[in-house]
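Weekly sync notes, structure subgroup
Attendees: PM, AL, DS (notes)

Item 1: joint prediction request from the bench team. They want all two components modeled as one assembly rather than separately. Inputs as received:
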Amino acid sequence: MDNKTLLEVVDLVVKYGNIEVLHRINLRVGEGEIVTILGANGAGKSTTLLTLSGLVKAGAGAIYFDRTSIHKLPAHDIVKRGIAQVPEGRRVFGTLTVQENINLGAFVCRDAAAIQKTQEWIYELFPVLAERRQQLAGTLSGGEQQMLAIGRALMSQPKILLLDEPSLGLAPLLVKAIFQTLREINASGVTIVLVEQNARAALRLAHRGYVLELGNIVLEDSSQALMANPKVQAAYLGGESTR
Amino acid sequence: MEQFFQQLTNGLAVGSIYALIALGYTMVYGVLKLINFAHSDLFTLGAYLGLTLLTSMSLTDRLGPVWGVLILAVMVMGFVALAGALLDRVAYRPLRESPRLSAVVSALGASIFLQNTVMLIYGARLLVYPSNILPKTVLHLFGLDIPLVRILVLCVSLIMMTGLYLFIQKTRIGTAIRAAAIDQGAARLMGIDVNRVILLVFMLGPSLGGAAGLMVGLYYGQVNFTMGWGYGLKAFTAAILGGIGNIPGAMVGGILLGVIEAMGAAYLSFAWKDAIAFLVLILILIVRPTGLLGERVAEKV
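Output from the run, pasted for the record:
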């Protein structure tokens, strides 16, 4: 863990009304890493990501990105600083075309040449999107919509990409393909934070992982160590016997 | 047959005014899911501001009718856009996180406030626009006598609607407005400042509504402080008819409603023209609850 810290969450507390859903959690993401956050339904994984993006406001604690605090910034400023999110359920703009979705991803960028370059890269990563440029996003299949959501988020040329359950509702083969692409994206220099219920796939991809339970971080370790941990195996990997 | 075409052109002109106002309702509904009840009073404000600016600055005497009215229109649209922005800031933005009903009540309050402000400033009696501004020319087209003003109203409205449509469809900001209307959270994740998008919508819609008010003043020659009620209701109907939240829908709905109303007045009974317009609305909503071009199911307000 000698790489430079890109994102740091310190004693973060988040409340919905009177209900506290995150209790002083701490996270650290180094530059170039893939970090996964595992946990069951309602553990607070999505809330964590939404708070990082500024859609949910922090109740207490702090979030530092590139050593500056961002937890008080509005969501659109956070995107400008280099944090992009692929939200849960994809949330592509269904009545807009694929190309319009991609263009919106680059809303914060004004450099036309850079936008063009990023777009070419995204259409290389996901050739099927290039074929469907003029199609309405709502008519794409689930997997294609997930690709579009990832491509759209990458258009802002983020330093860090947050993904919330990209495998949700997709066929295993498709999940494999998408995770392979995430590896490529990471290799190109984008740091990744991945929230997943599909713990096995997530741990195979990630360098390190955190386990979130009822709003508390209960474990933090390298992916290999987590995969070997009997508690993780029992709770998230469906026991030792399964492959 | 002559009566048919007379009523058709008349209906098109009135309908295009409905359409301009309807755009304000539909755009605000699109991004906020809120019916801006004060929109009709911004329309009234446009009509009165037009009268004040026209008489106090004698624009048409100094610049001639074409440039005079054009500058006048730009000024009216600018002022009403500012009023719209102020309305959002004061009446709606503080309630952004509140239940939707609060914003609806605030909208009704803003409407009453604006209407009474206009009454207190200008008085409750109807005021008359100078009658020598627009040409009295009557065109003889295909054996019909059609006032030039009627054609002008239709053309100017169509130009403004086309402009808006292209802005919404082709520009970066226009796409951001559409995105915010679909999913505000996702739009914010794209780096779109949704509050600014809403502010912009509260300037675009009212500026078109204000222009419509000015046109009504110039076309019919008189204004009164309750004029927004009738036009607002018709425009709101037009927005629902076309599918609320849908911009082309508001255009189509407005023009269709104007034509239906004119035809009903001519062939059935003038006294029943409003009833006919609303009957058509009811019939269309029974067959297509989302309106003619609507995709979304209308939500309860």
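Discussion: Confidence is low (pLDDT under 50) at residues 297-301 of chain B.
Action: AL to compare against the crosslinking data before next sync.
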